[in-house]
Amino acid sequence: MISNSVFEFENRTDRAASNPSRLSMISLRSSFRFLLLQYTGRLPSQLLRHWIYRRIYHLKLGQDSVIYNSCEIRDPHQITIGDFTSIGDHCTLDGRGGLTIGNSVNFSTGVWIWTMQHKVNDPNFGCESSPVVIEDYAWISCRTVVLPGVHVGKGAVVAAGAVVTKDVEPYTIVGGVPAKKIGDRSHDLDYRLKSGLHFW
Which of 58, 80, 157, 166 sits at 20 to 30 Å (Cα–Cα) from 175? Predict the structure, then answer.
C-alpha cells in the first residue's frame, strides 16, 4: 500500500497538537525539507541534483536517466523512474499517490503529473490520491496534464497541451481537452534516451 506523506503529516500533527513545541519542530523540519527540495531542482548540475534526489530524498532514478533543471518534485521517495528516461525542464512530478515512469520515456518541457486531487463533491473539500503509471517508450509532450489514476500504455504519445483524464492504450496518440485518440504510433520502437548535457 502506498503511503501518503500529506496524511502522515496530518496524523503526526494531530498527535502533537497537545504539545505546541513538538508541533513547531515537525512543521519546521517539513518546511526545511520542502525548501531544500525546491532549491535542488534549480541547481545547475545534473550530477549534484541526481545525487540529492537519490541519497537524501530516495527517489529511484534509473541508469542514464535525467531530470532537467527547474522541475518540481513532490514526495520523491514515492517516485520510480526507469532507465534512459528524460524528464524535461519545468515539469511537475507528484509522488504523493505513487508515480511510476518506465524506460526510455520522454517528458517534454512543462509536463504536470498529478496523483492527488480534491474531491469535488466533498463538503469538507477532502483529498484523494491514486497512482499514475507511464509505461516504456511513452512520449508526454509539452504543457500536458496527467491526472490521478491514469495509466499511459507502452509507446503511447500525449500531444502538446492535452489533459489526460483516462487511461491511454499502448501505441496510441491522444490529444485535446479531455484527451482522445487522434492517431496510432509504430510498434517498432527500440531507442534509448540520454542527456548530452551536465549543467542543465
Answer: 80
> Which residue range is the domain that position 175 belongs to?
5-184
Residue 198 lies in a domain: no
Q: Name 146's Cβ contacts closer than 8 Å, sequence gap at least 6.
A: 111, 112, 113, 114, 132, 134, 140, 152, 158, 164
* Whole-prediction pTM: 0.84
Cα–Cα distance between 197 and 25 in angstroms, integer? 39
126 contacts: CB under 8 Å, gap ≥ 6: 118, 119
| Run means of pLDDT, 10 residues per run, the chain, 200 residues | 44 53 65 81 90 95 94 96 96 97 97 96 93 98 98 98 98 98 95 75
Which amino acid, one-letter code, is at 169? E
Number of domains in the chain: 1
Cα Rg for the chain, rounded, in angstroms? 18
